[in-house]
Model the fold of this input.
Amino acid sequence: MEYITVRDAAQKWNISERLVQKYCATGRIAGAKKFGTSWVIPAGAVKPKDPRKAQRAPAMRRERRQSVSYPGLMPLMNTAFEPGRCLEFIHDMADDPQKQIALAEYYYFSGQPEKAVRETELFLTGADRDIQLSACLIYAYANLSVGKIQRARYALTAVQEMLASVSEKQPEMRAALSFVSSAAAVLLHLPLPERLPPMQEFLPMLPMGIRMFALYVNAHYTYLQKEYQKSLGIVETTLGMQTEEYPIPSIYLHLVAVMDYMSLKQRDKAKQHLLAAWELAKPDDLIEGFGEHHGLLGGMLEAVIKPEYPEDFKRIIAITYRFSAGWRRIHNPDTGHDVADNLTTTEFAACMLAARGWTNQEIGDHMNISVNTVKWHITNAMQKLGIGSRQDLKNYMLL
Done:
């Protein structure tokens, strides 16, 4: 019988090596054998089904039959839908603004910003603050990708004005506004608003899915402070506290873990988290986050996704170019930073690693390219940036 390794199985099934080992240890892969500290798996073995999903399915089907609507902020983000059934869940929601916001979320997170803009622009004002806040957040980020920077600024300004006007006697509204404000500021790498209350004050008032995304924002902010181990602690604790899988915040949490582990030069662990994010995202095509984080993932998309999913990789890179162009048009003027805007994604990834102290050989091994190709990309990038030293790359990278 022909056997494959745990790593081969993880890549074949798009899951982490840790999960494959768990399946082997619990007898869920027929014919798996242990050799030393690892396992070998029959080449024809089928990926085990997740029993948690099977247990949740009847309840979820009952919810869909009843067309249950999820009130509050970002209803899709705040739902533990089964991967692969995202559109089915939205279809079965009641026909009201919540459904339109959920659809706008789907359009945004699946890399369709034009449709997201159309679904949200009618809800930028109105009496329902949760709908308005959700619309403003989606509208702002979607307009970055379509190049409408003034529209994005309009939505972000509207959120700040609401935060400034809300009374302290409205704690739940302050919590919602604080979440949206911190998400907008941190993910654009801008200074946090002065009136923003500490996260520990508003976090307990948020529902589980939104709370998880708020903790992703916190982990991302901690990463930007170069506290990588602390950021990983936030990620692992947050993923461990969920009783059901919330796909959207979980995807983003796994991506921060990739950023942290790549900063710590722990590529295997970074790969495990990337594959975990991909396993959640691929069934519903929720690929936007991969494009948004490309520059921070340290070439992991080139190393892992590109060889196995070349067409998906092309779409992710298209998202990266669109989003990063709009992102820089807000980030660079507002911060005085000069994040490079004229590099290819491959040049940027190679330069990110070089700026972190990786050798050309390490970069080449990681990105599956030759040392000479690494040198060529970095030389081209330095010429575009008008610099003569690799030390100067740090001034143009997202470190």
User: Anything to note?
Assistant: DSSP finds 20 helices and three strands in the chain.
